[in-house]
Design a protein that fits this description.
There is one protein chain. By secondary structure, this protein is an alpha+beta fold. It is built from three helices and six strands, in the order H-E-H-E-E-E-E-H-E. Strands 2-3-4-5-1-6 form a six-stranded antiparallel beta sheet. Strand 3 and strand 4 form a beta hairpin. The termini are far apart.
């Protein structure tokens, strides 16, 4: 079982968007990395100038988006806070990873792709 949201309505909204993105083959590069403390939620998104998405946000999940990028910052009730991002290009994904590393001094970022290979 993996953490998806703090409220069922948020989970349904997130699921609907993810299904739509998959069907349209958009934002199909996925990245995940830890957030060092819950207080840091919003730090990377603020540096990227992303806007909050209220209907996909609850007390445990912050959903933010911008051109070619969707970020969910999550603070699960058990375990460490983390961030999941979906990007449209490998260039945008690499820029996001670099900003995250700079902002929080990260050494490890787990990266996976959904449908497309990073190039």
């Amino acid at each position: 079982m993996s953490f998806a949201a703090g409220e069922i309505r948020t989970w349904l909204e997130i699921r609907a968007v993810e299904d739509g993105l998959a069907a349209a083959e958009q934002l199909d590069i996925a990245l995940a990395f830890p957030l060092d403390v819950p207080v840091r939620r919003g730090l990377i998104a603020a540096r990227l100038g992303l806007r909050p998405v209220r209907e996909r946000t609850d007390p445990l999940v912050s959903s933010l988006e911008g051109e070619g990028l969707w970020i969910r910052e999550m603070a699960p009730p058990i375990g460490a806070p983390f961030c999941v991002a979906r990007c449209d290009t490998s260039e945008r994904a690499l820029a996001l990873v670099e900003r995250a590393r700079e902002a929080m001094g990260l050494e490890v970022v787990a990266i996976s792709s959904l449908g497309r290979q990073l190039s």
